[in-house]
Amino acid sequence: MKSDHSHPLGLRQRLLLWILLPLIAVFTGSILLDYRLAQETANTAYDHSLNDAVLDIVAYIQTTGLNPGLHLTPEAEAMLRSDATDKIFFAIRGPDQQLLAGDADLPIYPGSLRTRPIFVDDIYQDEEIRATTHRVAINGNEITITVAETMRERNHASHRILAAIAFPNLMIVVATLLVIYFGVRRGLVPLVHIENQIASRSPRDLRALDIEHVPREIHPMLTRLNELFESLRLAAAAQQRFLADAAHQLRTPLAGLQTQIELVAAEGKYLRNEERLARIEESVERIAHLVTQLLIYAQTEPAASANQIFQPVALHELAESAASTFIDRALIKDIDLGFEIEPAVTEGIAWMLREALGNLIDNALRYCPAGSTITVCSGIRFDHPYLAVEDNGPGIPIEERDKVFERFYRIPGSVSGGCGLGLSIVQEIAQLHTATINFSELAGGGLTVVLTFPANDMKNE
């Protein structure tokens, strides 16, 4: 079953959310309260006008003998019903609830002049109305007067009141949010600086973070982080010391063993079985090579190289010095080892780059037959410094080029005495230097391996 892993909110989002929610709640409550108070004030004014209409009608009621009547001229009734927006309805009923004047189907609502007027909201003729009923005693006769009006003007006034209240409050909320947003953003600037410090570092950079100006709330956390960096630096230094000691302890007996074999061979002890001597010498050489490669591989891992410092490295000088150490081997194998170097400088760890180039040259010497040509190159291509090794040997099949970077992998059918770590070491060093490794075939046969480094603003000369 596929699970949904949502990303947690950032600190900025959390702060804004916890400020925004109460602010919206306060804003909504304030709008409702202000709107209700304003609406009650407006209703009071309209109700007062409606109540005045009842009193105006009372003034037109007269009694003739025992029967009360309404002496209302058409002009007066038109004035009573007239309104620019709303409709006015009224009904006057006598003691027996007989209609004396007005709208016969207008309901009778509770109310009396002796008490506070009661106003009722209702639906009449499919419209919302506000109505009040008064019971008046005239010459001993109880007269019931009901007056109602539609609520168009009231609703329109309510909307105007709501807009007049909501707009300024909304502007205040928006302005407050902007102030809070920029305030929170400004307040989190030290965290952004710390984030940038960490994001811009490579795995080998274990320097302490600059926490002098950070907020005191995160100071303990960053202090613990710096303590962790210090522990990792000490561990990396201890690993480097161990590897150096191991290299010394392993190389010394192997060199001694090789020397003793050479002495025994010089004394003629293996005259009867020179093939066995050759196998012993080959085995010792392979063991020495394997130990050397393992130690170099361990030293190039990120954890072990954390204390290494990048410095400007002249690739053309490095190429010349690294290749010079292989000239004797090339002469013994009758291989033409040459240079095509142009000035190029990059930031890096010199001894690692020398090992990477040395492994590429060593591979070429191991796999190229006698009479081959190997060329070590350096220079700048498309603003990128590079190192390259060209040879006209058998090359690497395309289907094998991804596999050769695996540790201890050797191409099937290979007759070389390698241990399968050379290109793994080159890859580790390339990744540490953010460099790329590319293979390309030469037109006349052979292979070119190119290490391309990031473009930089250093003066390559």
TrEMBL record:
Its EC number is 2.7.13.3. Keywords: Kinase, Membrane, Phosphoprotein, Transferase, Transmembrane, Transmembrane helix. The chain crosses the membrane at residues 15-33, 161-184. One of its GO terms (cellular component) is plasma membrane. It catalyses: ATP + protein L-histidine = ADP + protein N-phospho-L-histidine. Gene3D superfamilies: 1.10.287.130, Histidine kinase-like ATPase, C-terminal domain. Residues 245-457 form the Histidine kinase domain. GO terms for molecular function: phosphorelay sensor kinase activity. CDD domains: HisKA (cd00082). It is found in: Membrane. InterPro entries: 2CSK_N, HATPase_C_sf, HATPase_dom, His_kinase_dom, HisK_dim/P_dom, HisK_dim/P_sf, Sig_transdc_His_kin-like_C, TCS_sensor_his_kinase. Pfam families: 2CSK_N, HATPase_c, HisKA. It comes from the Bacteria. PANTHER family: SENSOR HISTIDINE KINASE YKOH, SENSOR PROTEIN QSEC. This is histidine kinase.
